[in-house]
Specification:
The chain folds into three domains: about 120 residues, Immunoglobulin-like, CATH 2.60.40; about 90 residues, no CATH class; about 90 residues, no CATH class. A hairpin with a 6-residue loop joins strand 25 and strand 26. The chain is built from no helices and 28 strands.
Length: about 325
């Protein structure tokens, strides 16, 4: 009897006597129909990886422990414990151990009873994982986004606990902006995810952007999207300023605060005569009434207080 166990703590006694042991024999190994369980990652010890190889024409013979080294990607061993072939068809189950040296294809040429074949296993970069996202330190570049103005920039989100693994491309949309994370590889430890951001933000104000990555999530609170400077009414080719003349254009024109109130003008005159802070009483600088055509409908005049590219638009009843 001989103990041919590959585990020192568990003996596996078998007879070598020719009178009661049959030498193994089979008709063919079929590596092309192998079944792979588990996955192999570069630089990561194999765990839970096995390959089942079918055979035909077994004779019930006993076979010893067998070990086969990988080629192509080195560092791996395919181990077959001792056992007995079926009479007829059956399978051989190889356990894969070791640490693959690179990405690529690991090949194993196995032999049994004078028959041989080769099966292959892919070795890939380990899927990326992180411990946490840090949305509080996320950065937009450029930092200013303006409503209804095309934006092309990046959003950088820090993370911790990266495992050096790979991740796939991902994208989502928010406020009519597209956030695209290209496929890449994580750092080992701390790093950043860099999204390309394109599109035209449709809503002004603060954005609350949900970021999710490999089971981690947080919200990026952005600087306020600056309200659009102009708007175009449906069916109208003219662009209208969204802020009153003299208003603080950094403020949202749809939020009623004193800073968006703007200036007061005398009809037909370009000079400011009052604003929201002007005290009660007579207004200094008031001039005699200007002729009606000082603010013309069709052209911009020197009396028009609007900035370059804009003009006062009188209505038919004399108001603006």
């Amino acid at each position: 009897m001989v103990n041919d166990s590959d585990d020192e703590t568990t003996p596996n006694w078998g007879s070598l006597c020719s009178s009661n042991a049959t030498a193994p024999d089979l008709a063919a190994l079929n590596c092309g129909s192998s079944v792979i369980s588990g996955a192999l990652y570069q630089g990561v010890p194999a765990s839970g990886v096995s390959v089942t190889v079918p055979y035909t024409g077994g004779n019930g013979g006993l076979y010893p422990v067998k070990n086969f080294s990988s080629t192509g990607v080195s560092g791996l061993i395919a181990s077959l414990p001792s056992g007995m072939l079926n009479i007829g068809n059956g399978t051989l189950v190889f356990t894969i151990t070791g640490t693959p040296s690179a990405t690529g294809t690991a090949s194993f040429t196995i032999t049994m009873a004078g028959k041989s074949c080769t099966f292959t296993l892919p070795v890939i970069i380990e899927p990326g994982t992180i411990s946490a996202l840090n949305c509080g330190s996320a950065v937009f570049n450029p930092s200013t986004l303006t409503q209804e103005v095309a934006y092309n920039g990046t959003l950088t989100v820090p993370y911790t606990g990266g495992n050096g693994g790979a991740y796939s491309q991902a994208s989502f949309t928010h406020n009519d902006l597209t956030f695209l994370l290209p496929a890449g590889t994580l750092a080992s430890g701390s790093g950043t995810l860099v999204y390309t951001v394109t599109g035209i933000p449709s809503v002004s104000g603060v954005m609350n952007i949900p970021i999710s990555f490999e089971g981690n999530s947080c919200n990026v609170i952005t600087p306020a999207v600056v309200a659009a400077a102009t708007f175009v009414l449906p069916g109208n080719s003219k662009a209208w300023m969204r802020h009153n003349l003299g208003a603080d254009t950094s403020l949202d024109p749809d939020v009623p605060v004193q800073g968006i109130h703007g200036n007061y003008y005398q009809w037909g005159r370009p000079n400011v005569v009052a604003d929201a802070s002007t005290p009660p009483g007579s207004i200094a600088g008031w001039s005699p009434a200007a002729p009606d055509n000082y603010w013309q409908d069709a052209t911009k005049t020197t009396n028009d207080p609007c900035p370059s590219g804009f003009r006062v638009q009188p209505l038919s009843n004399g108001r603006i």
